[in-house]
Design brief:
heterodimer, A: 1185 residues, alpha/beta, 5-stranded parallel beta sheet, 19% strand, B: 291 residues, 8 strands, 10% strand
């Protein structure tokens, strides 16, 4: 039989032609088909003329039997099918009744019982698709006939198929730790089965944990929930994964693979004792979400006192932008928080954690952190450097001896660092921290490089540097001064002295030359050499007129120093314009204030001497700006004929610095670039000599102190890995671009995303020395913040990343449970079944603006009220207004966001009852408070619910039938309520409502309004829908398989839903569904195996061209590529029979069992065929039996 | 930008100030308002309650004329015109039987209407097409310190809230802020002014007007601004009656929102129709006009 079908010309991938359709009759007539038509009581027979349909079926070719039954699904009905198969030797069966979803399996089993393959069967749905959807009997009868004709035509081409059975993994995943999920998990664990309970919040408990009392019994929610939460925590069968989310699900019933992301808690679940010592020291305050934002919590917190697991966690929203912007990643928010709290020593400790030279930075850092400070989006960035200055000054002033923490381990390897500038010292600092034996070789007589030699004392008092150097010395670093590379020692020498690695950080100490005639006159000097002489204490004299050539910070330093040495007129001569000047804005302004003059677009071309050989001036030329050069700045071009003379007694050149080449003269192995800097490997900055690294300005050219420290620290890390024999090729990295940070990563929830609620406070500016005092002294120009100003300024920090990483909690935690470097973990689980109990969210009352939520302090949602009423809530259970006084009248408005076509059409089921409960709780705590319930109608449908309503009627609660229309603070109906006599608002809220029993509009003055918000599908329902491949009904909740008969099943076998994930429901119903879902799971586990439908796809090897289209479209990753044959192959265990590959396959090689083209096409053509071409059928009609 | 403009009857008589200021402000903001040729009554007021279909016929005639002009939008400054024209548009697209009747009626006058014209309020155009930033940039005399009660009335945003929240509208407040003035908290901003009820139930009107004025007084507003001629009329014309009959003492100037924009843009106050009001406003206006 089936062989003949295979030969049917329409079996390939093409449409039936009319000739083929004529041939169809032959194929039909080879079969003996039985057609069984169900009345379904009057469901079908009431609309369809059954006799006519039976007679028509009898007339169809191939039909050996057509009969009907009142209830075909009943035993007698099924027996009729079995009998006729045996009696008439039927080869195919069509049942025309309800939907396949309802009874396909029933009839397939009946067919199988009679000895026929159960897939030689087809169902025609004449109930849901015909009789239920029309009252036109004629049309219904005709459609039924067509559907039956189609089923008969299709079933001829059915092939016998076999079902598959696969074992069921006995472990279960429960997603969501609310009451429904808890119940599911407990029931399964009681049954002896392993459960993974995944909850995205830090604790299980869900919404129920927030509730005060429960209706109608008035049990305390915590009293009945907490024991269950504890049981979950104790159960050996339940693996509790809180603060975790499911990311990916693959596989099929009985055999799911699940990826779960366990978010970093930064607190060890094993060792935390919930002692709360950390809370006492945490400087951060954010709104407590668990208390609906009505109170504050710290960054390290637990959700509530009964949390399960009862452990703390840290709220980190990503590194703050100031930290990311800082080249050495200072924990800026941390020390700001400590300053704000007056814990200055702690602030210094935090600064010292990452910064080898914090005192220097406090005075002269170019502070990129301020540029990126999130506060700039509110008003102005914080004065971060000034705050650091305050902390470091405080430590110096108070003689606070900072002791470096001991290194983690002691290592015997020796590292030599050449150069004691910012980069060299930073390298020394890091390597000493790591326990190495570090020696620094410095060419000059002082430690500090440019910081000691180039920084004028009015920017940073000279004695300040020693505090940083002393600290590094205390770490065990040895300094050798007056040791010049290649003069006093060579790289070879260092190697011979057992140094395992060498870091060259010799900087750029040679001034660039102008190349103009007269440059070698004694009064023409390199600006840097001038500064060095001044800083080393030489008595330096300058003439009356001083010119400084250049536009960088060195030029400004030279100019301001010359002023202080008594120069009468100091002019900075710069070849470009003010806009191109590389000097920092603060330095420029200070110089300008002090009287330094500027000649822009000017270049000296010759220095002229008087008769004594002393400088008398210089010939300059005016410049104009051309096209931008490689630095992006516009190139200066001399203007012809613009030469002019400038008087000058001294000229200082500050036009750039280059490395001193002779350092490396002794080493032929050292490869140098065109600026005579060593060529280094990207990522490690190792030079061409193995084990010799370079760092700082030597590699990058002149830069800033903090950047030099970055490279010094990173090269030290590379050296550490080099010595340990690890991969050290990616330690040195470019500066990150803070603009790539997404702003929503680091918004402290205290400030709304638009910062509209942040009070504006201007940035505190640095107090400066009076200008008249400045230029005749070496006193530091910047005076520093007073303690009061510093603390106030520090308090401006938004703490945008929540946790400020001050690590105070680490110090406070005795069991050492805190790890600020904790990372997310992704677990891969294998489970047989999944229960989704992902709950709901409450309607956002702010969407319905007429009720004033968010505008009036005393308008609360029901969930807010639960917390207000709860003894663990923000007021300890005192039901008070925002001003702390007791309300005298409260209105409870029902159906906010429910039963309203603007928001949600459906009834949220629980609001009437919880509103009654709230009224009761108010009456219990404030007996003389008037309570108004504004309802559409009271839905008290559960056990004991109506009785509870009756009880409330006797508690003198006012019930007003009418939906609350509007809440505001001004009465429009009763003028006498407008003022309390003094013209001020009465402080009352006015609720407008149409009282539909009295038929009048009313305006009720109250002190507090509670909005009984409805339930909506959870915020991540859309995401979950995609992960678990489920359907949702139009209200957004997950769709059950059948609303009555399969309420916890979904269309996906092995995935169940429970609780409010399926729809709004109360606690008893959620618990019942949780238990029902676990019972369904246990049924599958106990069966041990599941039956898989054989309607999977398969690929015809001979036709497949190996284009892989099917692999890319398969949503279940069920198709793989067979490399030997170069064809696609379907893994039937994974295939869910969706048919996507079949429609996508360009060559027609992909097919699906039970859905061959010929089956579908013959069915379609039988439906679409013109009816009039059929022979006329009469009541006595059928010709064939 | 060019807009086809439907002035409506009020602008020709009771609301001359609105007419002048709307045209002056539109021009200053770079819009050309071209009057719909041969326009007729929009069909509003009592007519809608008595002969509903006919009043829609009147309304549809205007829409048909606009469509014949090739316009995709018709701009009005009257909330009643705005509501009625939009209502006719909605009915035509949602109710085939109704649409057929309207088509027949229009055909008798040699007109047809395919439902392609979108009816918009000038407030919507200013806030959403021109934009608050652009308005703010053109402000030469910021209304700093002026406390304004923004009164939207009911017809502008209801029933559908086409460009603002029907229950708690905000556009006018934002616009007033962009002019440099301070919008006060005015909880009755979308409440009914009584509209045409005065013609049959005069005594029902006064308490409504009283509440609206009272709320503005309590918020210490210097004036009330409105985008609706009828609201303007009721609040201004009946202030005396409220004072006399309900024993109050209101002297709150009522202004069209376009007058305030014009003031801030530095336009000539006479061109904006100031001076036509029944409640004297010189003291307030001169402060800003003189700047």
């Amino acid at each position: 039989m089936s062989e003949e079908v295979k030969e049917f010309p329409g079996n390939g991938k093409r449409r039936l032609t009319f000739t083929e359709e004529e041939n169809l009759r032959q194929y039909l007539e080879k079969e003996r088909i039985g057609v069984f038509i169900c009345h379904c009581g009057t469901n079908i027979a009431g609309t369809i003329d059954i006799d006519e349909v039976v007679n028509y079926a009898k007339s169809l070719p191939g039909v050996a039997f057509a009969g009907d039954h009142k209830y075909m699904c009943s035993d007698p009905g099924q027996n009729l099918i079995k009998e006729k198969i045996k009696e008439l030797g039927l080869t195919r069966v069509v049942v025309s009744s309800c939907s396949p979803l309802m009874h396909e399996l029933t009839f397939r089993h009946a067919v199988a019982d009679a000895g026929l393959n159960e897939f030689l069967f087809q169902m025609a749905n004449i109930r849901e698709q015909v009789s239920w959807v029309t009252i036109d009997k004629r049309a219904a009868t005709e459609k039924a006939k067509r559907l039956i004709r189609a089923a008969v035509t299709r079933v001829v081409f059915h092939k016998p198929l076999e079902v598959r059975k696969v074992p069921v993994n006995p472990n279960t995943l429960v997603v969501g730790g609310g009451i429904a999920g808890i119940e599911s998990a407990l029931k399964l664990s009681e049954g002896g089965h392993k459960v993974y309970l995944v909850e995205k919040e830090p604790s299980i408990g869900g919404h129920m944990a927030k509730f005060d009392k429960t209706f109608p019994t008035l049990d305390c929610a915590a009293c009945i929930l907490t024991p269950k939460m504890v049981s979950v925590g104790r159960s050996e069968n339940i693996e509790l994964l809180t603060y975790s989310e499911v990311e990916e699900v693959s596989g099929y019933v009985g055999n799911f693979k699940v990826k779960v992301r366990k978010k970093a808690r930064y607190v060890n679940l094993e060792t935390c004792t919930a002692c709360q010592d950390c809370v006492a020291v945490c400087p951060v305050r954010v709104p407590d979400e668990f208390n609906q934002g009505m109170s504050e919590r710290t960054a390290i917190y637990r959700q509530f006192a009964q949390a399960t697991p009862n452990k703390f966690l840290i709220d980190k929203r990503g590194p703050a932008p100031c930290k990311v912007a800082c080249p050495i990643e200072q924990d800026v928010p941390g020390y700001l928080a400590m300053i704000a709290e007056g814990k200055y020593k702690e602030a210094v400790e935090i600064i010292r954690r990452a910064n080898p030279l914090p005192v220097v930075c406090a005075y002269v850092c170019y502070h990129p952190c301020e540029e990126w400070c999130e506060r700039k989006n509110v008003d102005e960035p914080l004065s971060i450097r000034e705050l650091k200055r305050f902390a470091m000054d405080w430590a110096v002033k108070n003689h606070i001896e900072m002791v470096p923490p001991p290194p983690l381990e002691r290592r015997d390897e020796k590292v030599a660092i050449v150069g004691a500038g910012a980069a060299g010292l930073a390298s020394a600092y890091v390597l000493a921290q790591k326990g190495y034996q570090v020696e620094v070789y410095e060419a000059s007589s002082v430690i500090g490089g440019m910081m000691a030699l180039g920084l004028p004392p009015y920017r940073m008092p000279r004695q300040m540097l020693k505090h940083d150097i002393n600290y590094i010395e205390k770490m065990g670093v040895k300094f050798n001064v007056n040791q010049t590379l290649d003069k006093d020692f060579t790289i070879e020498d260092l190697k011979n002295r057992d140094f395992q690695a060498i870091i060259l950080a010799v900087g750029t100490h040679r001034g660039a030359r102008l190349g103009a005639p007269g440059e070698d006159l004694p009064q023409v000097e390199q600006g840097l050499d001038f500064l060095k002489r001044v800083n080393l204490g030489e008595q330096v004299r300058v003439g009356k007129k001083v010119c400084v050539i250049g536009g960088g910070n060195t030029a400004i330093d030279v100019a301001r120093t010359a002023l202080r040495l008594g120069a009468e007129e100091v002019t900075i001569v710069y070849r470009r314009s003010k806009a191109e000047m590389p000097a920092s804005g603060e330095e420029f302004s200070a110089a300008e204030e002090e009287g330094v003059k500027f000649e822009y677009l000017t270049l000296p071309i010759e220095f002229l001497a008087d008769e004594n050989g002393s400088l008398r001036g210089m010939t300059c030329v005016r410049m104009e700006l051309g096209e931008p050069d490689e630095s992006g700045r516009r190139r200066p071009i001399p203007v012809k004929g613009s030469e002019f003379f400038m008087d000058a007694d001294n000229v200082y050149l500050a036009i750039g610095l280059v490395p001193a080449t002779d350092y490396f003269a002794g080493s032929e192995d050292m490869k140098l670039d065109k600026w005579n800097a060593p060529i280094v490997q990207t990522g490690s900055w190792e030079t061409s000599i193995p084990g010799v690294f370079a760092a700082g300005d030597l590699v990058t050219g002149p830069s800033t102190i903090v950047k030099a420290m970055r490279w010094g620290k990173q090269v030290a890390n590379a050296v550490d890995k080099f010595i340990k024999g690890l991969d050290y090729s990616s330690e040195v990295t470019d500066l990150p671009d803070p603009s790539v940070l997404r702003r929503n990563d680091f918004i402290n929830p205290k400030w709304r995303a638009d910062y509209s609620n942040v009070p504006h406070f201007r940035r505190s500016e640095m107090p400066m020395l009076a200008i008249t005092e400045r230029i005749r002294s070496w006193e530091c120009v910047e005076l520093g913040f007073s303690e009061e100003v510093a603390r106030e300024e520090a308090r401006r920090c938004l703490q945008c990343g929540v946790c400020v990483e001050c690590w105070e909690c680490v110090k406070a935690c005795q069991p050492k449970a805190i790890d600020h470097f904790d990372k997310d973990e992704v677990l891969e689980l294998e489970v047989g079944n999944i229960i989704l109990a992902t709950g709901f969210k409450t309607f956002d009352a702010g969407r319905a603006k007429q009720f004033g939520y968010g505008r009036y302090d005393n308008v609360l949602t029901s969930l807010d009220f639960e917390r207000l009423s709860h003894s663990g809530g923000p007021t300890g259970g005192r039901m008070v207004k925002s001003d702390g006084t007791l309300p005298k009248a409260i209105a409870i408005l029902h159906c906010i966001g429910s039963r309203d076509q603007h928001y949600n059409e459906y009834c949220s089921r629980v609001c009437c009852m919880y509103s009654l409960k709230m009224a009761h709780l108010i009456k219990e705590k404030i007996p003389d408070c008037e309570v108004y319930e504004l309802y559409i109608d009271m839905r008290c449908f559960g056990k004991g619910y109506e009785e509870f309503y009756n009880r409330l009627l006797h508690e003198r609660v006012h019930f007003i039938r009418g939906k609350g229309a509007e809440v505001n603070d001004y009465p429009s109906l009763d003028p006498t309520l407008r003022f309390e006599g003094n013209g001020k608002k009465s402080g009352k809220l006015f609720v407008r409502v149409e009282d539909t029993l009295l038929g009048i509009p009313r305006e009720i003055p109250v002190d507090m309004v509670i909005l009984s918000v409805g339930l909506e599908s959870s915020a991540d329902a859309g995401k979950l829908q995609q992960i678990f491949k489920l359907s949702r009904s139009k209200d957004g909740f997950f769709l059950e398989k059948h609303p009555k008969l399969a309420p916890v099943n979904t269309a996906s076998d092995g995935i169940f839903i429970a609780g409010c994930a399926q729809g709004p429901k109360d606690i008893p119903d959620s618990v019942a569904q949780g238990a029902a879902a676990s019972a369904s799971v246990m049924a599958l586990i106990n069966t041990g195996e599941v039956v898989l439908e054989p309607t999977t796809s398969h690929i015809d090897e001979e036709i497949c061209t190996g284009c892989k289209t099917c692999i890319t479209v398969c949503p279940y990753d069920a198709i793989f590529f067979e490399e030997v044959k170069k064809i696609s192959v379907v893994n039937e265990a994974l295939c869910k029979g969706c048919g996507t590959c079949v429609s996508a396959c360009p060559s027609g090689a992909a097919r699906q069992w039970g859905f061959d083209d010929i089956q579908i096409e013959s069915e379609l053509s039988a439906i679409l065929k013109e009816y009039k071409r059929e022979p006329e059928v009469t009541a006595s009609g059928g010709q064939r039996i | 930008m060019d807009y086809l403009f439907f002035p409506g009857c009020s602008l020709e008589f009771t609301s001359r100030g609105y007419d002048k200021s709307s045209r002056a402000v539109a021009e200053a903001l770079g819009c050309v308002l071209k009057d719909l040729p041969d326009w007729n009554c929009c069909g509003a007021t009592s007519y809608m309650s008595i002969r509903e279909l006919r009043s829609h016929g009147l309304s549809a005639r205007n829409l048909a004329l606009a469509e014949a002009e090739g316009a995709s939008e018709l701009i009005t400054v009257c909330s009643a015109c705005y509501t009625v024209l939009n209502k006719t548009n909605d009915y035509i697209s949602e109710m085939p039987d109704f649409a057929q009747k309207i088509r027949t009626a229009l055909a008798s006058a040699g007109l047809k209407y395919d439902g392609t014209v979108r009816v918009r309020h000038l407030l919507d155009v200013i806030v959403n097409d021109i934009g608050l930033e652009a308005v703010n940039e053109k402000v030469v005399k910021p209304l700093t310190g002026m406390k304004v009660a923004c009164y939207y009335g009911c017809q502008l945003t209801r029933p559908h809230g086409r460009f603002d929240d029907p229950e708690y509208p905000q556009t006018l407040d934002l616009l007033v802020e962009a002019l440099g003035a301070t919008p006060v908290d005015y909880p009755l901003k979308a409440k009914c002014c009584g509209a045409m009820v005065v013609s049959t139930q005069r005594n029902d009107l006064l308490p409504l007007v009283d509440a609206l004025l009272g709320a503005a007084l309590e918020a210490q507003a210097d004036c009330i601004v409105t985008p609706c001629p009828l609201c303007h009329f009721n609040l201004e014309f009946y202030q005396d009656d409220v004072n006399r009959q309900l024993g109050a003492d209101y002297k709150i100037p009522i202004h069209y929102f376009t007058q305030l924009i014009g003031l801030a843009l530095g336009l000539d106050v006479r061109e904006l129709g100031f001076g036509l009001e029944l409640i004297p406003s010189e003291n307030l206006i001169s402060v800003y006009a003189g700047k």
